[in-house]
Amino acid sequence: MELIDQHTKTIMEGCKERALGAGLCFQDETLEYIVTNRDLLEISPKLMIPTLYDYWVHDVEVLKEKGRYELYPGNPYETVINTRPAISFYNDNNPDWLNVMIFYHVLAHIDFFQNNLFFRHTWDYDFTGQALSDKRLIAKLRSEKGRWVDYIIEFTRGIDNLAGYHNELSKLHRTPISDRSKRLDFYFDVFLQSIMKLKVNEYVKEIERYNQCITEYTNMGEQSFFSEVEKKYPEFEAIFKKSLEEKSSQRQDLIQYLMEHSEFLNKGKNRWMKSVMQVVRNTSLFFQPQIRTKIMNEGWASYWHETLFLQDERIKGHEVNFARVNANVTALSRVGLNPYALGMRLFYYIEEMADKGKLSFDFQRIMDANQRDKYDAGTGQGKRFIFKVRENFCDSMFIHTFLDQDFVGNHNLFVAGKRLNQNRMVWEYYVKSRNAKDFRQMIEDSLYHPPYIDIDLEKSVDHTLYLVHNFEEKPLVKEFISNTMMGIEYLWGGPVHLETSEVDSISPVQPQYVSTDSSTVKQEIKEEKEIKWQRVVYTMKDRKLSKKNI
């Protein structure tokens, strides 16, 4: 692995100028390395950060990728890491025209990393520096504690998908806020609603008064607004200052709770384990946004590599090659999900909708298909709008908001079903639904959605830990329960209970019979089967797992 040569770096700098000119926003410093095809497949994004702590499972992953490459050699093109500066890796055999396309793709990724609000907890520090410190800590502890360090890493990684990602984001703001901004939030969100309990019409009038002050007095608008508030509610300032002194009652995730409340971990000889757990938790939090924005991130990068490269004179003579490579990356799958293709087409679709004013309430009220197709208010706000979407959305919001029936119809999308052909004894795929609601549900079901588990303090008595799975009709994976709870029991230092829901019974579909003049026709109304759920409690005590129904 080595840095790209000066010729290729010059190409990259030229791509940066064009990308910035098109509206992308990113820090100018970047690092680019070239590696072989095999290395690019074998090295995971986490391991591409050379300062990150090593872990024995990574060796297993590398061996697995070596075997896969022997069977299915290929060219994965690039990998980019959200660090300061951003680090990206490229194949050592890419021609210049392909590097131009890939550089645009990478720069769009960097723009997404540095502007999407779901990454904002990664903006304020250099992760490579922090990772180096963590790696040295792990190495030092390994020299003192041996294999026990890897056991603690393993136990903590078993629950690292429960790290409080959204809790961390809730502590942050887009920009540093002043006391007056905090005062404004408290006034509208707490004081008027919870303390004064204003009626809706009075609350709306207060919002209108604030907007009027901002319009008339601009920078002094907030000060002018609160001068009237002090006359109307003289007690407000004292209540606000008292709220600033109160400690925030943030919900702790399971890793935090174990580190703070486990008597076992807080013994003098075991406190080193908490530092290892903190390293695993911080690393997990850093990489959480990637999995929650996969469709948007890849769609944004694909949108810009196509848009910018098609305008670049360096495409001349390579149009066919570009079309072939681009199709391999962004072709819509008839069965399954290609995040590059779906995300890119959604950004194009949203841009067109915003340009024509189709995101307005007036358009949504139109039911006639021909009128909807011909509607064009000519707002020209498409580019501006997709930059706002890039800033504020994650995959679940993106899909739920913009994937509608018009999009499904335009791209001939459908939900595929699978059935056994009894005559030929082969599996057949068929079009199960072309409804946008069904297609959207299929995509949403495939998104990352970790279980929501709380600690029940009232039931956590006599040195036991009682965990409650807030059930969302997605059961826990049974084969992981035993090992995960064993790790929690070790870190807690006592018995652990886990309350969750499991399938109790599945009712078969009852077919309906429709009578006609000639015969009785059997007709199934729906394919879904009715599932009855049973609440159960798993108990891990002395490394033995038991279960009982509630």
Report what the structure shows.
- The protein has 550 residues and is of the alpha+beta class.
- It folds into four domains: 2-116 and 293-325, no CATH class; 127-171 and 250-289, no CATH class; 179-245, no CATH class; 453-549, no CATH class.
- Helices cover 52% and strands 14% of the residues.
- The chain contains 23 helices and 13 strands.
- The strands form four sheets. The protein has a five-stranded mixed beta sheet.
- Helix 23 (478-492) links the parallel strand 8 (465-469) and strand 9 (496-507).
- Helix 4 packs across helix 14 (294-310).
- The longest helix is centred in the middle third of the chain and has 21 residues, at 272-292.
- The protein is globular.
- Residues 57-74, 175-179 and 513-526 have low confidence and may be disordered.
Which labels suit this protein?
single chain; 550 residues; alpha+beta; 52% helix; globular
Could you give the topology of this structure?
Blueprint: E1 2-3, H1 6-21, E2 30-35, H2 37-42, H3 56-71, E3 78-81, E4 86-91, H4 96-115, H5 127-145, H6 148-157, H7 165-170, H8 179-195, H9 200-217, H10 221-232, H11 236-245, H12 254-261, H13 272-292, H14 294-310, H15 319-330, H16 339-355, H17 361-364, H18 369-374, H19 382-392, H20 395-402, H21 405-410, E5 415-421, E6 426-433, H22 436-446, E7 453-455, E8 465-469, H23 478-492, E9 496-507, E10 512-515, E11 520-523, E12 530-541, E13 544-549
Parallel strand pairs: 2-4, 8-9
Antiparallel strand pairs: 1-2, 3-4, 5-6, 7-8, 9-12, 10-11, 12-13
Helix pairs in contact: 1-4, 4-14, 5-13, 6-13, 6-23, 9-10, 14-16, 16-19
